């Protein structure tokens, strides 16, 4: 227990004692609150001066010691008990707003109930002055019983620190918990390891979330504390420096661990002070402020926040690697677990033992430098290999400096790396461990530049390098028979692919140009081509890789932003694809890229669009005759509809009459299957407005079909109603017949990104739409959906483009803007104000940004060409979007 006077910048201990003794009630509260705030202010000032964070955490603990001890005495809580600091407070790592974890330790004969009022009054006082206290009141016997049942209680007790009261009570408790039978080292180790595994799974095994939890994420402070706890339990040492003496860490590894710990402590300190509460999540709303507070600045085409986060990710990677190294060495050398497992020879250089690959010769990498690559091919091909043995891992890291320019040019090393890339890998651990040992970055130096590179937006959930690993994981997953049901088309392509090298390299290079300014696809394509040539790949392979990198976004953009039912769109896209192989690899790359970008980004609607675009383009590329002209397409669609009704035995004359009445534009606008379904609805002569809801033909979205007489404000009203029913619009096709009948179709998903599945919910939406559209004049277009808090911390420059294609009947409008609930409904109201007819809409949401494309015309169904009118539209749209 240290006095706050040990730290000359803290308020004097005597000040609190003197002022509080003569104060009562509210006045005493004010004294303690003032002392607490003065202490925090002093610590904050020292933080900004660069004072050691370890010292500041101890100073905060000393300040808290004095507050608790002084108030304990003044409230006469219990002279026969002991007040004990536990947890982070016990090890003197107290952050500004951390919980104050304490144990009130009683003797077996103590009358706890007799002292209950004083204790409750004291605890209430601590809460009143602004402390979040986690407390327990137990006897020594009770502590021991609970600790034997619960590893978290046991962990708290081994970190206990005396504050005041009967010191002999803590001495007796210490004697009990230090007995060999109290959580033996092996049991303690296994329990903490299981806790860590469970925690890592909760965070999807990644250290690279863009809004990480500094304490609990893999590689966070909790991973470091696991090392501390096991060291304290087994070696009876609270100093990580002693791990050098025990041969677990080298001096360099210890310094790396200490630097990582201190950096994370500083980030957490800043986060607590800036958020004015206990906050361990480095959310977007805090990142810019923390970066500024810690002195990071914008430069080198990177924002200050990106520099902060890159430093953070590199720190947690070091801590995670050293955590795994510690656990493995401790398990093997101190607990000697798994020693009876068989050693399996993999070849003359490597063996498999206890699911870990190891080297037979400690100097293997000196004698055979190519073995630095060969080991990862073994890992990639053998799913039984889960880890690299600790000593081998250390040898790889110490040999990393060998991988220089001459190493990369050596024909033998190149041949082994090419062999690794050409392998149809059965597990992504080869790439993952190659990256975590820094060998991937050493072999491809451009990749090392994006390690820890974040992007400050809601679209990307991971750093660039971690996203790349997820992308490779998804590609490799298609090789596994047990996952063939997930994406059968990707699985089929991978099964027939002889050499996966172009796909793996395209995955590695597709985002490698980020963080440098300019178009990352263009930059990456140049890097990819240069690298492929440097390792001697054939020209057609090198050019294929560069083409995939350069065009890795195009398929997603066309599928989501263009009308892929339009043959012209397919023709233009196909003209950019040199061959079926290019198309197939681009499809696999695109699907995997979207899935790896953000867990919430992928949905069945995107899957449907990409598959439809792939199949239509493949058909176009393989056909031997030119595509059908418009008149042939019209006749083909009409014939498909007629044949369907003929099969059902119904009279086809009403169908022919209805199709004539609706006109050719209708047949061109919709898919034959949609026309058949809509025709069935219309032939029943429903009362208007009419609403029908069913799953889209792809089963990837829900199709909302609305038949209603044409009238002003229709698009604005429908979009508002759909938004009020908590539906997200993915696409819209709008048609008005010559007689003024509107047949509009909206593809929607629920707020979780899924098609509607519950009949009761579907009926409720159907009723709400009919009620709203039946009373258009009294319809309330306001939307009450709250703006997600995350969106408040991003800015997206609104961009509105309006242009005409002489080959198209209507005008195209493209909008890029910051996303928010009811945005589409507001845009619809701007259309109403400008007397604009909307014929189709493509809705694309990319994190905080939307990129929507509309086909529009004036009130007479003519393209909008007047420049004054165009400027008026842009002005109204900007006002609606930025309102």
Structural overview:
With 883 residues, this protein is an alpha+beta fold. It has 5 domains: 4-182, Beta Polymerase, domain 2; 186-334, Up-down Bundle (Four Helix Bundle (Hemerythrin (Met), subunit A)); 341-443, Hydrophobic Seed Protein; 463-608, Orthogonal Bundle (Hypothetical protein af1432); 673-882, 2-Layer Sandwich (Alpha-Beta Plaits), CATH 3.30.70.260. It is built from 39 helices and 17 strands. The strands form 3 sheets. Strands 9, 10, 11, 12, 13, 14, 15, 16 and 17 form a 9-stranded antiparallel beta sheet that branches. A 4-stranded mixed beta sheet has the order 3-2-1-4, with helices on both faces. Strands 5-6-7-8 form a 4-stranded mixed beta sheet. Helix 36 (714-724) packs antiparallel against helix 38 (823-833).
Annotate the secondary structure layout.
Blueprint lengths: L12 H9 L3 H25 L3 H22 L7 E4 L1 H4 L9 E7 L9 H13 L4 E7 H10 L1 H8 L2 E5 L1 H11 L7 H18 L18 H15 L6 H4 L5 H25 L8 H10 L10 H31 L8 E3 L4 E4 L2 E4 L4 H4 L3 H11 L5 E2 L1 H9 L6 H5 L1 H11 L7 H8 L2 H5 L1 H5 L14 H14 L10 H9 L4 H9 L10 H15 L4 H12 L3 H8 L5 H8 L5 H18 L6 H19 L7 H18 L5 H10 L1 H6 L2 H12 L6 E6 L6 E8 L4 H11 L3 E9 L4 E9 L9 H16 L24 E6 L6 E8 L4 H11 L3 E6 L2 E2 L2 E9 L9 H16 L1
Parallel strand pairs: 2-3, 7-8
Antiparallel strand pairs: 1-2, 1-4, 5-6, 6-7, 9-10, 10-12, 11-12, 11-15, 13-14, 14-17, 15-17, 16-17
InterPro entries: ACT-like_dom_sf, ACT_dom, HD/PDEase_dom, HD_domain, NT_sf, PII_UdlTrfase/GS_AdlTrfase, Polymerase_NTP_transf_dom, UTase/UR
Pfam family, one: HD
Family: Belongs to the GlnD family.
């Amino acid at each position: 227990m240290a006095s706050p006077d040990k730290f000359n910048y803290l308020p004097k201990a005597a000040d609190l004692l003197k002022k509080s003794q003569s104060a009562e009630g509210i006045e005493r509260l004010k004294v303690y609150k003032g002392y607490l705030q003065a202490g925090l202010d002093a610590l904050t000032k020292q933080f900004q001066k660069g004072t050691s964070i370890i010292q500041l955490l101890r100073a905060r603990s000393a300040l808290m010691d004095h507050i608790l001890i002084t108030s304990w005495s003044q409230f006469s809580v219990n002279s026969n008990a002991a007040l004990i600091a536990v947890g982070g407070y016990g090890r003197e790592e107290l952050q500004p707003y951390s919980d104050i974890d304490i144990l009130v330790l009683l003797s077996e004969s103590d009358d706890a109930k007799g002292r209950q009022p004083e204790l409750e009054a004291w605890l209430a006082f601590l809460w009143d002055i602004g402390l979040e206290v986690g407390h327990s009141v137990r006897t020594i016997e009770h502590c021991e019983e609970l600790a034997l049942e619960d590893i978290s209680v046991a962990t708290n007790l081994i970190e206990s620190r005396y504050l005041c009261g009967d010191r002999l009570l803590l001495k007796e408790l210490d004697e009990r918990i230090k007995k060999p039978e109290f959580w033996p080292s092996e049991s303690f180790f296994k329990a903490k390891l299981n806790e860590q595994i469970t925690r890592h799974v909760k965070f999807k095994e990644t250290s690279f979330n863009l809004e990480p939890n500094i304490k609990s994420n893999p590689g966070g402070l909790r991973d470091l504390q696991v090392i501390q706890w096991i060291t304290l339990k087994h070696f009876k040492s609270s100093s990580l420096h002693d791990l050098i003496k025990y041969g677990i860490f080298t001096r360099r590894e210890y310094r790396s661990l200490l630097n990582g710990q201190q950096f994370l402590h500083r980030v957490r300190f800043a986060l607590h002070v800036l958020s004015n509460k206990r906050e361990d999540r480095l959310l977007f709303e805090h990142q810019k402020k923390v970066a500024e507070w810690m002195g990071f600045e914008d430069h080198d085409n990177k924002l200050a926040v990106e520099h902060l986060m890159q430093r953070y990710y590199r720190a947690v990677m070091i801590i995670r690697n050293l955590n795994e190294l510690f656990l493995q060495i401790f398990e093997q050398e101190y607990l000697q677990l798994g020693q009876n497992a068989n050693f399996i020879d993999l070849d003359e250089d490597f063996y498999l033992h206890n699911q870990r690959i190891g080297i037979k010769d400690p100097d293997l990498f000196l004698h055979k430098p190519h073995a630095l690559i060969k080991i990862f091919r073994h890992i990639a091909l053998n799913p039984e290999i889960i880890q690299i043995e600790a000593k081998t891992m250390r040898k790889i890291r110490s040999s990393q400096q060998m991988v220089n320019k001459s190493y990369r040019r050596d024909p033998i090393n190149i041949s082994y790396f090419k062999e690794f890339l050409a392998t149809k890998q059965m597990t992504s651990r080869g790439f993952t461990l190659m990256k975590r040992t820094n060998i991937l970055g050493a072999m491809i130096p451009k990749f090392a530049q994006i390690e820890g590179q974040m992007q400050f937006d809601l679209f990307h959930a991971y750093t660039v390098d971690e996203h790349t690993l997820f992308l490779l994981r998804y590609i490799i997953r298609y090789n596994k028979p047990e996952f063939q049901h997930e994406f059968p088309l990707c699985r089929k392509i991978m099964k027939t692919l002889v050499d996966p090298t172009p796909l793996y390299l395209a995955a590695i290079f597709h985002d490698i140009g980020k963080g440098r300014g300019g178009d990352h696809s263009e930059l990456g394509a140049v890097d990819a081509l240069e690298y492929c040539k440097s390792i001697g790949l054939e020209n057609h392979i090198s050019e294929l890789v560069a083409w995939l990198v350069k065009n890795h976004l195009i398929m997603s953009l066309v599928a989501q932003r263009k009308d892929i039912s339009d043959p012209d769109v397919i023709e233009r896209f196909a003209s950019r694809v040199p061959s079926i192989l290019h198309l197939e690899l681009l499809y696999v790359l695109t699907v995997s890229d979207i899935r790896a970008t953000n867990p919430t980004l992928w949905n069945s609607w995107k899957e449907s669009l990409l598959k439809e675009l792939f199949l239509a383009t493949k058909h176009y590329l393989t056909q031997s005759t030119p595509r059908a002209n418009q008149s042939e397409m019209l006749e083909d669609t009409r014939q498909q509809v007629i044949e369907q009704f003929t099969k059902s035995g119904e009279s086809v004359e009403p169908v022919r009459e209805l199709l004539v009445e609706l006109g050719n534009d209708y047949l061109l606008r919709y898919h034959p299957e949609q026309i058949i379904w809509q025709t069935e609805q219309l032939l029943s002569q429903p009362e208007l407005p009419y609403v029908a809801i069913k799953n889209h033909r792809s089963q990837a979205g829900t199709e909302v079909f609305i038949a209603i007489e044409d009238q002003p404000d229709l698009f604005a009203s429908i979009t508002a109603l759909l938004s009020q029913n908590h539906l997200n619009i993915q696409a819209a096709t709008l048609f008005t017949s010559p007689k003024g009948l509107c047949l509009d179709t909206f593809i929607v998903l629920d707020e979780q990104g899924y098609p509607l599945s519950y009949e009761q919910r579907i009926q409720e939406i159907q009723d709400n739409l009919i009620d709203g559209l039946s009373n258009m004049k009294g319809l309330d277009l306001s939307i009450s959906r709250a703006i997600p808090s995350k969106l408040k911390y991003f800015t997206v420059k609104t961009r509105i483009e309006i242009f005409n294609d002489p080959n198209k009947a209507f005008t195209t409008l493209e909008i890029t803007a910051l996303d928010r609930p009811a945005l589409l409904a507001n845009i619809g109201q701007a259309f109403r104000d400008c007397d604009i007819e909307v014929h189709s809409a493509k809705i694309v949401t990319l994190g905080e940004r939307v990129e929507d494309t509309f086909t529009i015309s004036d009130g007479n169904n003519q393209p909008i060409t007047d420049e004054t009118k165009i400027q008026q539209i842009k002005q109204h749209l900007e006002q609606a979007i930025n309102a």
